[in-house]
Amino acid sequence: MVQILVQSDLCSVVKEISMDTIWVQLSEKLYELSGVRPEDMRLTIWCSNGLKHEINNETVRRADQCMKDVLEQPAERITVVDTNQNSIAQQLTAGLNAIDGSSDGGASVGTYQLPEDEYVRRQDSVYAWKKQNQLGRFSSQYSDKVKKARDAQVAHATTLCLDERCSVTYANAPERRGWLRYVGKVPEINDIDCWCGVELDEPLGRNDGTFDGHTYFGPVRKNYGAFVKPLSVRTCSSFVPAVDDELCASDSEI
């Protein structure tokens, strides 16, 4: 986990975020803080080596890449820009500017880094507004949806066979194959969700079976390990290692 300052027109807060966080998960976290919807989001990220990265909307919604796949060094600051001029977040910003008399052309002031616990207690934040209006994760529909999704993950996990061959598939990502080595919680991520630890046939993962210093399986070779949600995994002895098509063709010719 690294301490990252998250800034937008409506927030300035320090969050602990893992560089193993998938982009689509990061966009949901930033949505909760900034009120900017993922589909309207453009990010500017400053890393510890001083480099600045412009992250477009397509990358923000990817489910097959994590932050460290794109960023060379840990992130230190993320600025969230709302590209939708008619969004609720933009309307709130305009309303706040009208109240305090500020505008884009006004004099700039120093940035105050608001601690997360203090941000949650504030009554003039996007967080408080969403909570008051029961929007996003505060709505009963959202809670029911999250619970059903978690129950589905756990139910599917019970059908998987540990130490069996497996296939891992995500939307908009190629299939990966390997061995299912772990099923259970990863407290370093949270104490709620169920995860599958997979030893991959190829170095297409993001770890070696450890997460934040805790070993869950292996350890295996670097980038041969991955932690994925159960619904993306199927186990069956027929999931043999993928064979290179060119190699297969050459072997058939003598």
TrEMBL record:
InterPro entries: CAP-Gly_dom_sf, CAP-Gly_domain. Its main location: cytoplasm. One of its GO terms (molecular function) is microtubule plus-end binding. Gene3D superfamilies: CAP Gly-rich-like domain. Keywords: Cytoplasm. GO terms for cellular component: cell cortex; microtubule plus-end; nucleus. It is found in: Cytoplasm. Residues 195-229 form the CAP-Gly domain. SMART domains: CAP_GLY. Signal peptide: none annotated. One of its GO terms (biological process) is cytoplasmic microtubule organization. It comes from the Eukaryota. This is LAMI_0B01200g1_1.
